[in-house]
Amino acid sequence: MKKILVIDDDLQFNKMVCMILVDAGYEVRSAYDGSEGVKMFRQERSDLVITDLYMPEKEGLETIMELRQEDSRIKILVMSGGSPHMNMSEMFNMAELFGADAALPKPFAMGVFLQRVKALVESGS
Amino acid sequence: MENDLPKQKTFTEKLIENSAAATFVLDSEHKVIFWNRACETLTGIAAAEMIGTSNQWRAFYDHERPCLGDIVLNAGEEGLQELYESYAKSTLIPDGLHAEGWYKNLNGRDRYILFDAAPIYDESGNILAVIETLNDGTEQKRLEEKLRQSVKMESIGRLAGGVAHDFNNKLAVILGYAEVSKMHTPEGGKLWLNLNEIIKAAEHSRDVTSQLLSFSRQHVISPKPINLNSSIQDLQKSLAQLVGEDVRINYNLTDNLLLVKIDAAQADNIIINLALNAKAAMPEGGKLQLATAIKTVDDEYCLQQADALPGSYIQLTVRDSGSGMSRETLTHIFEPFFTTRDVNKGTGLGLATIYGIVRQNKGFIEVVSEVGIGTTFKVYLPVFHEIAEKVTELI
Prior knowledge:
Chain A is an alpha/beta fold. Chain A contains five helices and five strands; from the N terminus they run βαβαβαβαβα.
């Protein structure tokens, strides 16, 4: 079973994404900020990490960079609903520069989300 | 000493006459006794037309009303609030007054004038006359307004971006749960239909936040070099349907238009939203003109126009013969949720979206409007130079 780690500070969103992924047949763990997420990833590798970009404690970009340092082959999907400080296009471009494999703006249609997850998980195997 | 008096009088007159500050003097009967050269230049009215009359109001207003000097002569501040946009007691001269405001067509230009009026007393303390000076503060006021406007739009943009971020997270939760629940519900049943309504409402809200993100320039875009003429031509059919048969559309597209680098969907969004805005301004029908041109923007123009930077631009003009807008309305039209339309007849995000898109693409918008005459939007988008250079090489 493919393993996915979800990092998002929005509790409801995090819970919802985990539910969708579990229903789709993935083994899912979740963290509510970047530091916790990186710590969990060190304890147990995942095939895919889905992370928010605009978070308190540890920002998404920093999280991506640390995850990438931990494992150069890990697949990373970033998701964001925008930030009051930064242009979303620039934010996604930067996330990709920092090592994210794909980006998805929130909110998304479930079909699109699952398709993206499947493609990333399969490309990593 | 007595022999020097005529000399002194002449000298004093010359002082006023040659002062660089536009100055006029009223006697105690409110008649003009001085109207200096700077005043002639500023107002466009010759001293000969003013001296001996009480027509000083004609220089500034289209109807008879007191000037600041008249108010000082009346030794009161009554009516100041209604007469001037801004006023205060003079900080320099006792019993003097200061006022300022915009004046239309003052010697051919709209100007922001700062008035200062001060009484001249005799030995017994009676008012003999009043001296009023006028300073043209147009350039400074425009710069201040330009700065204030950009700061305001930036703060609104940040606020809109912040709201959209939180709202998008919650919308994602609503949509996600509704979609999952729908999958586990028998199709066509009451619950399934209710969930469908929730999804539709959430999708509509997603479109609203998407527009807010456009305003705060956060939309995910893929800009490509495009020809705005092609965008307009592709939309011709849709535009005719959008504005209805009561609005006649006229196209004036410049041949050999240079390219702009913009997301094609954003270009369509600008054109459609401006057309919809024009339609709303012409409920009884009218004329809508869409034109394109290549324009060079210089430093002088940039002083007058908020957000403008010198360079080569493609200008998209959308002109309607609708109801027009007041100066006050014009200062708010690009703010999100600002609308002059009836409730439920528009989200108030159309122009805010255009503003965001144009700024995201390093362009700017000029708006000219006159109540009862119509409105012209001129959207400037930077010419895509790499391609422009290649085209020049080919020629």
